[in-house]
Amino acid sequence: MKIKKTKIRTKLLKAFTAVLFISFLLTAVIFNVAIRVSMYEGTQQVTEASGFIGRAGTISIILMGIMFVVAVVVTYFLSNSLTRPIEQLGAFALDIGQGKFTPNDFRFRETELEDLNMALNKSAKQLGEYDSQQKAFFQNASHELRTPLMSIKCYAEGISFGIMEPKAASETILQETDNLADLVTDLLCISKIDNITTAYTVAEADLAELIRASAMRQEAVAEKKQIRFTFDFEEAPILYDCVGELLSRAIDNLISNAIRYAASEIILSCHRRPEHIEICIADDGAGIEPDAIAHVFERFYKGKDGNHGIGLSIVKSIVEQRGGHVTAGNRDEGGAVFKISLPV
Description:
Layout: H1 8-40, H2 46-97, H3 111-160, H4 166-194, E1 203-206, H5 207-217, H6 219-224, E2 228-233, E3 239-242, H7 244-261, E4 265-272, E5 276-283, H8 311-321, E6 325-330, E7 336-343
Parallel strand pairs: 2-4
Antiparallel strand pairs: 1-3, 4-5, 5-7, 6-7
Helix pairs in contact: 1-2, 2-3, 3-4, 4-8, 5-7, 7-8
């Protein structure tokens, strides 16, 4: 059922206009009586005029009483029509504050109240989704943290009881500790990105230099695996307003992922298109399995030889935070390619 909406100010205006109209009508009656009285003064009809004045006064008092009663009744029902929905919305807001995020089914005729109700429902829906995501995130995170911790514990106990060779076991412990440190860093990054109260500083950055700096930070790891970087940038700087720290983290994760799967080369490119800026990180490895392409950006999804299943989800969150999008696919000549599109 479609509800015809009216504005609260319109309702109040109509009520006050009615009261003023009655007041002006009463004033006109009294003014008319006064004129008639003045016409009778000094004549023989003073007695009749006096009687008329008395009756007019009585009628005026009765009209004022009626107007007062009507005003009280109108005010009562008007106040109820305003306060009842406000009380309903107040109770709903209190439920949201207590963690009850189920949207309500209220409908209001007043435009302002219906807009407020829709805003509260939208907030409840978003908070409910955020709450569910956080619960799922902590469940998955606790599982991912438990795996390296159990491995470290097992090898440490093996050394303690003398059933494992100390050097080999310590190397495994160090490796798992590094994995654990990387995982904790990723989890902290996700927490910072998803925090709805976090404020970021946006500044202009040269995207080509930002990508080159990310590659240089991982050059040692790439050289160890005999992988070279090839850069494809425009001659002019590509300046873009962004959160440099976060965008650098997204590029770092994509380059790190490419190093894991590349055979000998990683191609890094950045170009300005008519409606967006495109950043590509491509490798010459085996590529992404077709069934995995649709899931690579999901949190805690691990592809073949994957690490924690968090790095690419961080990329997606950072890029979408700037209103862009990221895609994954395979190159015709072989290898995987990740494309970031940033709005201009």
